[in-house]
Amino acid sequence: MITADPVIFGLLAAIIGLVFYTSKLKQSFWKQLYRFVPIMVMIYVLPSFLNTLNIVDASQSQLPHISSKYLMPACLTLLIISVDIKSILLLGPKIVMLFLIASLGIIIGGPLTLILFAKIAPESINWLGEDAAWRGMATLAGNWVGGTANQLAMKEIYQVKENLFAIMISVNVVYSAIWMSFLLICANNAAAIDKKTGADSSNYQRLIATSEYQQAHTVKNITITDYILIFSVAFGVTGLAHMGADILAPYFAAHYPATEKFSLTSNFFWIVIIVTTISIALSNTKVRELEQFGASKVSTVMLYILIASMGLRMDLTMIDDFPIYFAIGFVWLAIHSLFVIIAGLVMKAPVAYMALASQCCIGGAASSPVVAIAFHRSLVPIAIMFSVFGYAWATYMAWLCAEMMRLVSQ
After folding, report:
1. Domain count along the chain
2. Could you give the 3-state DSSP secondary structure of residue 56?
3. Which residues contact 271 (CB under 8 A, 6 or more apart)?
4. How far is CA 324 from the centre of its chain?
């Protein structure tokens, strides 16, 4: 097995290059393949075979850590600095309502899943004691409404045993990966889906048109100085975010430990908050003009590396383990998706709104920008804002979900 990170990174780079090269080939096989399987999905899934087939050992690799800690903040910076806040307001209230309904689908979905299993297979899971299924599901609720910090908070609140917690982490990894792949496929067919459902996408299309017009009419000749400035801003803001997070997270942990339920003791939370805040501020300055020199294209390259490293952590054989908990995860995710789809159809919302609302819950700040940019880069700030909001209220919502599941289990 390959364990050296430089070699693993080389393999990921080769996969990305191969996918882009084959996507441009004229043969019918490749055209049909990429018609049904988007480039993003290929770049996400193919690295998982390196892990699944034991070609590489990613358990000790630092590449996912480096990607999430360095590339993701830099990528977000370049995407946000070109944001037109006024244009975002064009999206209207539908996407906000869908996000709230998506969260509700998770909160109510947990108890409904247990009620269903109590009817069809009551002997298949533990209902009481330290290994009770609802305890482990409480941690998954924390992750699916917020993020990893909220999942850890629920683990401590309900004293979830390590083996059960490990199972729920596996469930989260597998279904987050499957769900994101599905949403990326939806993005590739968004226009056809919206036409089929009769969605009112006028506000969304207006935002895209505004964004595309600005980009098309401001492109200039790019020099090496422009690229240097783009990288300077991207990683300069990332460095400031890390410095601030390294101060703020320990400070809140030491002086205000109760704020853990708001994720204020999480280093990653503060990185996202600081990057977003600084980048929005910069979007109102001349720094925004970096978009004229291809800032979003540079961020897209970073994004594909991030996606490949995320796929590296996925093990396709994990779905064979702990079958009952994976069945629980499937039913729970299905209930969540039904909430979103039904609400979206009633509101005649475009599929981009539904996908974004869902991924901001299931994936959080680490992956919601990936789904957002698959539809259009102008949606990235919305994805970040919803994901950050999810961190803030996830512990409360997961607690409510857990207590309802406790009542069902008694």
Report:
1. 1
2. strand
3. 69, 73, 241, 242, 245
4. 25
| Token pair listed for 152 | 């850890």
Is 127 inside any structural domain?
yes
Amino acid letter, residue 230: I
Asked if 298 contacts 81 with a C-beta cutoff of 8 angstroms, the reply is no
Prediction pTM value: 0.65
Q: Within a 10 A sphere around the Cβ of 258, how many other Cβ atoms?
A: 9
Residue entry with tokens 């090269």: 21
Measured distance CA(326)–CA(320) in Å, rounded: 9
Does the residue 89 lie in any domain? yes
Q: Which helix (H) or strand (E) holds 392?
A: helix 380-409
Domain enclosing residue 376, as ranges: 84-296+316-409
Whole-angstrom Cα distance, residue 287 to residue 279? 9
Amino acid, res. 403: E
Q: What is the pLDDT along the chain (410 residues), one digit of tens a residue?
A: 788 889 999 999 999 999 999 988 988 899 888 877 778 778 877 888 888 788 888 778 888 788 878 888 888 788 778 666 665 566 668 888 888 899 999 999 999 999 999 888 888 787 887 778 888 898 888 888 877 656 766 777 777 776 677 778 778 877 887 888 888 888 888 888 888 888 877 777 777 776 665 655 555 677 889 889 999 999 999 999 999 999 999 999 999 888 776 667 878 778 878 887 898 788 888 888 887 787 877 887 887 888 788 778 766 665 554 678 888 889 999 999 999 999 999 988 888 889 988 888 887 766 787 888 888 877 777 787 777 677 667 767 888 898 899 888 87
